[in-house]
C-alpha cells in the first residue's frame, strides 16, 4: 500500500514504467513478508499469551519452515530489487535491516515503545521512498507531506495502540513498553493526544503547504478524532478484543487515507 502510494504520487512528475513498478511492488511485498515472519518468530511467546492469530503463534507454520521461507523470500526480494534498479536495492536492504533491528537480538528495538516507534516511522518513510524511486520522478510537496504524516501516524500512533492491546504478553516477555511501565490512564491519554496532534498537524500543513492533500488530511484527522473518542471511552476496555479497538481504528484510518490518495490522483 505505502509502496504504491509513493509510486502514484511521484507519477505526477515522471512517466510510469508499469512493469518496473509492479516488479518493485513484488520485491517490496517479499521483503515485507520477511519482516513480518521474522517478527512472528521472535514474538511467539508473547503472541500466544495475547491470543494472536499469526501463523507461527497458532502453530500453522513451524519455526524451521518460517526461517526457510524468510531466506527464500529475502533472496527473491533482493533479486527483484536489483532488476528494478534506480536505487531500489539499497532501500530494500535498509528496510530488511530495520526489520531485523526491530525483532531480533541483541537489538530487539520492539522492547521499548520509543525504539519500536523509530523503526516503524523510518520503515514507512523508506517504503514511500522506494515507491517514488522506481518512477524516477522528483518528489513534490504532496508526496513529502503524505509520507511524513502517514509514517508519523504509523510510528507514533500505531505503536502505542498496539502496545495498549498487547500489554499482558509484553509484560510477560519482559518488554518495557509504555503500556507496561505506565498506568493505563496515562497510556490512553497519551495515545489520544498523539493521534490528535498527528491528525491536526497533517490537516494544518496540508492546508498551508499541499492543498492537494486536503482529502487525505481530513481522513486522518477524522480518524484521529474517532481513535481519541474510542481510547478514552469504555468501548476499548475489558477483554483483548475490545482493547484492540483503538488499533483497528488506527488501521482503518490508514486505509481511508490511502484510498483518498488514490481518488485524488485519478481525479486530476
Blueprint (SSEs and pairs):
Blueprint (H helix, E strand, L loop, with lengths): L1 H9 L7 H25 L1 H6 L5 H4 L4 H22 L3 H16 L9 H21 L7 H25 L1 H6 L5 H4 L2 H26 L4 H18 L8 H4 L1 H23 L1
List the keywords.
268 residues; mainly alpha; Tetracycline Repressor, domain 2
Could you explain the architecture of this structure?
By secondary structure, the chain is mainly α. The protein folds into two domains: 1-139, Tetracycline Repressor, domain 2; 141-268. 78% of the residues lie in helices and 0% in strands. The chain is built from 14 helices and no strands. The protein has helices at residues 2-10, 18-42, 44-49, 55-58, 63-84, 88-103, 113-133, 141-165, 167-172, 178-181, 184-209, 214-231, 240-243, 245-267. Helix 6 runs antiparallel to helix 7 (113-133) and helix 8 runs antiparallel to helix 14. It is flat and about 50 Å long. It starts with a helix and ends with a helix. The mean pLDDT is 91.
Amino acid at each position: 500500500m505505502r509502496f504504491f502510494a509513493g509510486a502514484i504520487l511521484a507519477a505526477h512528475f515522471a512517466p510510469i514504467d508499469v512493469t518496473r513498478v509492479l516488479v518493485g511492488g513484488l520485491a517490496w511485498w517479499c521483503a515485507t513478508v520477511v519482516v513480518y515472519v521474522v517478527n512472528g518468530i521472535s514474538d511467539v511467546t508473547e503472541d500466544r499469551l495475547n491470543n494472536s492469530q499469526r501463523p507461527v503463534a497458532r502453530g500453522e507454520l513451524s519455526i524451521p519452515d518460517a526461517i526457510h521461507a524468510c531466506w527464500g523470500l529475502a533472496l527473491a526480494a533482493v533479486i527483484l530489487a536489483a532488476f528494478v534498479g534506480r536505487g531500489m536495492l539499497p532501500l530494500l536492504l535498509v528496510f530488511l535491516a530495520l526489520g531485523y533491528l526491530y525483532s531480533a537480538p541483541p537489538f530487539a528495538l520492539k522492547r521499548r515503545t520509543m525504539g519500536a516507534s523509530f523503526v516503524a516511522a523510518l520503515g514507512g518513510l523508506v517504503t514511500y521512498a522506494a515507491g517514488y524511486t522506481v518512477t524516477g520522478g522528483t518528489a513534490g510537496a504532496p508526496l513529502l507531506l503524505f509520507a511524513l504524516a502517514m509514517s508519523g501516524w504509523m510510528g507514533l500512533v500505531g505503536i502505542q495502540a498496539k502496545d495498549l492491546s498487547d500489554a499482558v504478553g509484553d509484560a510477560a516477555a519482559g518488554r518495557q513498553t509504555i503500556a507496561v511501565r505506565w498506568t493505563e490512564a496515562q497510556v490512553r491519554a497519551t495515545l489520544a493526544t498523539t493521534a490528535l496532534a498527528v491528525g491536526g498537524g497533517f490537516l494544518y500543513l496540508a492546508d498551508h503547504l499541499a492543498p492537494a492533500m486536503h482529502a487525505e488530511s481530513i481522513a486522518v484527522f477524522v480518524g484521529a478524532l474517532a481513535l481519541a473518542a474510542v481510547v478514552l471511552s469504555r468501548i476499548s476496555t475489558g477483554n483483548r478484543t475490545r482493547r484492540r479497538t483503538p488499533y483497528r481504528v488506527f488501521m482503518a484510518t490508514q486505509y481511508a487515507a490511502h484510498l483518498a490518495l488514490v481518488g485524488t490522483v485519478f481525479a486530476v
